[in-house]
Amino acid sequence: MKTDKIRSLFLQFFKEKNHIIVKSGSLIPKNDNTLLFTNAGMNQFKEIYLGYKKNHTSSYTSSQYCIRTGGKHNDFNKVGYEPYHHTLFEMLGNFSFGEYFKETSIVYAWEFLTHKNWLNMSKKKIWITYYYNDIETKNIWLNKIKIKPNHLITIYDKNNIEYHSNNFWKMGNSGPCGPCTEIFYDTRKKNNTIKNHDELKKYCVEIWNLVFMQFNQTKSNKLIELPIPSVDTGMGLERISAVLQNVSSSYETDNFIKLIQFIKKNIKIKSYNYISLRIIADHIRTATCLISEKVIPGNEGRSYVLRRIIRRVLSHGYFIGLHKPFFYKLSEFIINSMKQMDLDFNISSNINFIKKTLLSEEQQFYRILKIGMHKLKKEIIVNQNKKLCEKKIFHLYETFGLPIEITQDICKEKKISINFQKLNQIIESNKKKQKKKNIKKIQNNSCLIYVTKKSIFDGYYEYVKKSKITQIIYKNQSVLCLSEKCIGTLVLDITPFYGESSGQIGDSGTITNEKGKFIVHDTQKNGNFIAHQGYLEKGILHVGKNVVAKIDVNKRKKIQSNHTALHLLHAALIKKFGLNVIQKGSYINNEYFRFDFICNNNITEKDIQKLEIIINKKIQKNIKINAIITSFSRAKKYKAVYLSSKKYKNTVRMICINNFSIELCSGTHHKSTGKIGCFKIIKNKNIGNSIKRITAITGINVILYIQKKTQKEKKIKKLLNNNSNDTYKSIKNLVKKIHCIEKEKKDLTNQNILQISKNLMSKAYIINNISIIVSYISHLKYTMLTNISDIIKQKKESVIMILINKNTSITRFLISVTNNIIQYINAVDIMNIMLSLLSGTGGGNKNIVKGKLNNKNITPTEIKKIKKKIIKHVYKNNVYK
């Protein structure tokens, strides 16, 4: 039975049982900060389970796409190695909210699996588990379904921790939960007895989990009964397909087999590592669907998971010989063969965006991967004891981004052992150090953790406010007063100071009364808690006393110019490049602003000039800016731009600049665009995969910037001693002259190398047509030794060569042996002979070895000793041409 047919039958079965078929929800949970990705079919019904939302229908069914790559449900490291685990899979499910509970859901499951009109599976092959204190479920299986008692296995709590069991289902550390009963299918030919859960997992495949939602687990690990006991079942489509298609893993089912064949055809490699193929096949589905949902590879949250998925594929690709981008081509398969997935994720319409994103990430990572893999191979060659240092493995991961699982795979093939206990200790130790740094950073940079009084912000258009001090913080403690010259934090009942948020820095200014003057350096904000950080310049201030809060107006207006200009830039980018422009972050101060965003298009210098013209025209028109307080749902109807990753309250603030820019924002802005003065982009660069960063300035800073550039140009003109107005032409001519000089220098160097090579060949010691060259070269760059080696190998058929070089304080060497004699003596053998006389380290292969010597100066006598020992070795081993 084909996979698509199984999905269709499941939905049809429950439709006939009066269930509403619900389309698969997004992989990105909406308005749910407890989950990175949708990890179960019940996610889209979570608010109904918790009683926050009333349902008008009691029963639903769906085929939900899920991702499990972290937290409790983390299948990432199992993918490829185990037969039924995937990062992305489809979960078939039926859900009931008060209409039916345990008995009906068990009866439905049994009917669908075993009835001849549906899946017609053998009853003798089915095994059941249940939670030990869920006696009701046990009795339903025994008395209603009439399952054989020896096919019913009791599952207890792990380590005697209550509700910590395979058969007590939890979505995460908090949320709906309850006992469950799992259905297993025996894949063996003979129906032998199964004694316990370990044997069950060994011989059977778990195909369906029926969860009875009775509780809500709070973060404090308390279980609260849900208002309506509900049913949530989940059956992995890939698993049930494997069982019905009589194959040993879900990677052998119809859809995966077609995908693996497509991969083989498109990546064109002679030998295949089956584990690597499985990983590539699994991960292309996940990466394609996530990018289609506008998740972009990055260093945080969902973006980091996607980057990790892609980089794991590329590392495995590199391992099987794919050293050029290949992954981006494979997303085409989903359009052509996986029609349901294509429909659910709009892959066809997003395919160019997906391929560009994947290609960009591949190109970026290959540069890192090449270095990491080269260094790993070097370490493997050097380590003759067949053991790799755990610190070096972690160094390769942390410094060069080489995934630890890839290092593990390569070492396994080369029969090199790794002490994983030590490696895990190093990883955990590094995590703790990082955590301490982050805690220290929070403690140093934020005083908000000590603020307990709320403030009302009233400073969008008011720059001075009469207020009252409600809290003073000094040395991380609430105090009643602050003395002269002391550094501290003030909290006011009402304030015109804007606390840092929405990418905009906090205000500075003064808080004064007749008793004292407090200089505010920075203002921090978290919700309604606003902290004014600074020092008391003179006098004394007390809690409960009235004060006048006055912001630095000049600074605020410059910040407003930059913030409003950012909105204009964002709108202009969308107009130019379309809705694929997605904001990733921003930073706005009084000097400049920067805007980070996703865009697959290359932004050229011409594009920058056009953007500057568009925005400056909007500024010249002096368009009125309206700040509208409205509902979030109404803002979406206006097609307001907002951050999809941010959770918004029902009431939002919408900044409208005509119909050109409509954006949700809590920051401060001018009343009209003319106040900005002028606009100039000063930097445009890529900071990550498809992520661009534009830095810009406004107002007087634009004038100062142009003046500075003009002064620089005058200095360059003076330096060139050029009377012409065309400075560019003069520099172009100068660059041409430099290129000519560099070419002449290169030609001279090549001639020098050629001459050195001839001299070395003329002085070679020859045994049976084998030229032995041992030479100390001190006046050439170390990189030139390879060129000399290549020239000599072209001229001489049989060569053993040691070239020692001292160009800086480090003495390096290169050993080279021609192919026709490496069966008798190779470069590694020669290195070992040399290092028996001189201390040092090196590594390479049989043809060529590179390394460094501890001796700073090599004497002619030492050169002779090395040469004699090699000649002796050649004679002794009867090395002939």
Automatic annotation (TrEMBL):
Per its record, the protein catalyses: tRNA(Ala) + L-alanine + ATP = L-alanyl-tRNA(Ala) + AMP + diphosphate
SMART domains noted in UniProt:
tRNA_SAD (SM00863)
PROSITE patterns tied to this protein: AA_TRNA_LIGASE_II_ALA (PS50860)
Q: Where is the Alanyl-transfer RNA synthetases family profile domain?
A: 1-708
Cofactor(s) in the UniProt record = Zn(2+)
Q: What does the UniProt function comment say about this protein?
A: Catalyzes the attachment of alanine to tRNA(Ala) in a two-step reaction: alanine is first activated by ATP to form Ala-AMP and then transferred to the acceptor end of tRNA(Ala). Also edits incorrectly charged Ser-tRNA(Ala) and Gly-tRNA(Ala) via its editing domain.
Protein name per the record: Alanine--tRNA ligase
Which organism does this sequence originate in?
Buchnera aphidicola
